[in-house]
Design a protein that fits this description.
Elements (H helix, E strand, L loop, with lengths): L6 H8 L19 H12 L2 H6 L2 H15 L5 E5 L1 H12 L1 H5 L6 E5 L17 H9 L8 E6 L5 H12 L3 E6 L5 H5 L2 E4 L14 H20 L16 H15 L3 H10 L4 H10 L3 H10 L4 H9 L1
Parallel strand pairs: 1-2, 1-3, 3-4, 4-5
């Protein structure tokens, strides 16, 4: 399905979507006490993880494919409109401080550009050409992955992004919250997390938005685990850009090595503050340059670098 200028046809199309369904049992929710509304909303939210769990095999397959491409120098690119686009931008923006990725390694595209993060950009989500132009501006390569995000699964911007990327040989993922969606059908990896009707009819920033956030968390986090950005469950590639993160960096080194504060300070000083390098320097008893070389030879995987140092 694509957008249509016929209001009657569009209305009929929306009425087929689970995410747009009307809940007659909630027709008088505005007359309930606040606590009861909160209980209802919380109850609705508890169903989302179960819906995500049903799609874990598809999610895992997509992650493995993304990680394989990114290991070859590809980028992870999210494309969506409205809430879906904002969630993609949010996930992308959190990767540099969390995993020390280059800002252009994980990218979020939102229909209408940066202004659409805080205001509605009229007609942007209906423009397939805008999606093609946005991707062309990134100079797609075959190693890239484009993840189209749309609760309805019918948003023209997201569908066109996936179609355009696939035509250029990039990996494609379609994340929707309705079954049999055009977005999932257009992508190599379709992920449809069906969360059912919303508490407020058609307000897909609620359960659908929560489901999308959970899946995007998995896509980026587990991909980074596969790429060696963690050591166990420690964020060893964290970028210490503020006092909190500098304290966290020292704590991560301590947890990974059991070293004293003085040893940790010396190791961080010898490795220009790089947490992963400092851990390797301590555990393998090597100097900073040697730690850097071992990690480079191991494609950034700390466990592999430790094995190489001990071998």
């Amino acid at each position: 399905m694509t957008s249509t200028s016929n209001p009657r046809q569009l209305r009929a199309e929306l009425e087929t979507l689970t995410t747009e369904a009307f809940r007659a049992d909630l027709a008088e929710i505005d007359r309930l006490p606040t606590l009861e509304i909160a209980r209802l909303m919380n109850g609705e939210d508890t169903t989302v993880p179960t819906a995500v769990a049903e799609r874990l095999p598809e999610i895992a397959a997509a992650i493995d494919a993304v990680a394989e491409r990114m290991a070859r120098g590809g980028r992870l690119i999210y494309a969506g409109a409205g809430t879906a686009g904002r969630l993609g931008v949010l996930d992308a923006s959190e990767c540099p401080p969390t995993f020390n990725t280059d800002p252009d390694q994980v990218v979020g595209l939102i229909a209408g550009g940066p202004d659409a993060m805080v205001t509605s950009v009229e007609g942007a989500e209906d423009s397939a050409q805008l999606a093609r132009d946005d991707l062309d501006g990134l100079r797609l390569i075959a190693a890239d992955t484009v993840v189209g995000i749309s609760a309805s699964g019918r948003t023209p911007y997201a569908i066109a992004a996936v179609q355009h990327a696939r035509a250029r040989g990039a990996l494609t993922v379609g994340l929707a919250c309705n079954a049999d969606s055009a977005l999932a059908a257009a992508a190599e990896h379709g992920i449809e997390v069906v969360v059912g009707p919303e508490l407020l009819t058609g307000s897909t920033r609620l359960k659908a938005g929560t489901a999308q956030k959970l899946v995007l968390n998995m896509l980026s986090t587990i991909t980074m685990i596969r790429l060696g950005k963690t050591y166990g469950n420690l964020m060893v590639d964290v970028r210490a850009s503020n006092e909190k993160l500098r304290a966290r960096s020292r704590r991560i080194v301590a947890l990974a090595t059991g070293a004293s504060d003085d040893e940790i300070e010396r190791a961080l000083a010898a490795t220009d503050g790089e947490v992963k390098n400092a851990i390797l320097a301590i555990l393998a008893d090597v100097d900073g340059p040697t730690a850097a070389r071992l990690l480079e030879d191991s494609d950034g995987h700390l466990r592999a670098a430790l094995a190489a140092a001990s071998g």
